[in-house]
Amino acid sequence: MAEVLSIVLGGGKGTRLFPLTQARAKPAVPFGGKFRLVDIPISNCINANLRQIYILTQFNSASLHLHLSQTYIFDTFSNGFVEILAAEQSFDHSGWYEGTADAVRKNLIHFRNQKPGYYLILSGDQLYRMDLRDFLAKHKESGAAITIACTAVSREDASQLGILKVNKSNTITEFFEKPGPTRDITDFKAPAELWADKNKEDRFLGSMGIYVFNAKAMEECLANELTDFGKEIIPAAIGKVKVNAYLFDGYWEDIGTIKNFYEANLELTSLRPRFDIYNEERPIYTHMRNLPPSKMNSSNINHSIAAEGCIITNASINNSLIGIRTIIEPGASLNGVICMGADYYESEIKKQQNAEARLPNVGIGRGAIIKGAIIDKNACIGENSRIGVDPLDRNDGNYGQYYIIDGIIVIPKNTILYPGTQI
Q1: CA distance to 6, 50, 231, per residue, from 340 (Å)
Q2: Separation between Cα atoms, residue 164 and residue 392, nearest integer Å
Q3: Which of 95, 192, 385, 417 has its CA 20 to 30 A from that of 220?
Q4: pLDDT tens, residue by residue, 229-288
Q5: Is 295-417 a domain of CATH 2.160.10.10?
Q6: CATH architecture for the domain at 4-267
Q7: Which part of the chain has CATH 2.160.10.10?
Q8: Separation between Cα atoms, residue 244 and residue 336, nearest integer Å
Q9: pLDDT, tens digit, for every residue of 398-416?
Q10: Whole-model pTM above 0.90?
């Protein structure tokens, strides 16, 4: 579908996912043991044969650029590409991206060269698997200038999303961005006949932040100073052009916060996860590292996932996700832990140097006990450390070598915790 240009919005500083975004762009945050967040929207595009993809970002782009350049290499006959467009200065624009719409506006000069008929706007911090071909087909059939993908949400979730009101032909008549928990939005409830499940209690239609624009409509909507699609562009377009809703009844999760990120990762370890990473028809693509299979030495592992290249020895692991190249030493115990793994294996010489300097190796040391935590890449957890084991009476915040966010302990990338550390 060369007529469709896909644009993944990489977001700003990623403050809601800090400290995971301390040294990387939000789309580059590891997910599911071996993937990156950006792999989700890109894979949805590839599975729909959409291969002209731009990623818009402006903070900590180095690791994201490396991942994309090593992963998404299309053949010369497909005219496909995945390219980062970071904020840049030009004679027309000199500032940072001021919002989602502003990011697209400042890159129209690049997009116009592709002569697209449609723009597909995707978010870089959501977990879902959507048939984008059906989404585009429904948009074309409707004759709408803009189509917004939406899903059923509860009143609680509706407070933080754009809420739609539609008529019987799925045309959007009103759009309210983040109404908050107290505002009365009863008249925004969706008719029960819209859903196959007539008993569905979630009656509000929440915007997924996924849009299709006709190229002409995009140009017209951005011919102003408005900066955000949800807050400004979409509400301004309703009533001027036809804006339709596309009803998505599958799994969708915003993983832009530490709590949602933690829960979505661990949900993958359940017996039947709602997001199936084992779907061969619609795979999630990522960098092929050619790592060896993981090795388990006399360990007890339950409801957990271990990515490739791990060595786990005489450990107890429950309801946890173990990322690539993770080394777990004897006697370690992990429960409710996301361990993102490592970018490299340490050599025997390096390990000897660590021993002489009394430094822990990369990975989880002997006898370490960890509960309810996210361990970022290349962290060195010393032997007999206790993380999240003892009751925490501390508030969320920065505690130097670690953070507590929504009650979840986060150990940042490259952190060294000396033997016997207690958190």
Answers
A1: 29, 30, 35
A2: 41
A3: 95
A4: 988 999 999 989 999 999 998 999 988 899 999 999 999 999 999 999 999 999 999 999
A5: yes
A6: Alpha-Beta Complex (3.90)
A7: 295-417
A8: 41
A9: 898 999 999 999 999 999 9
A10: yes
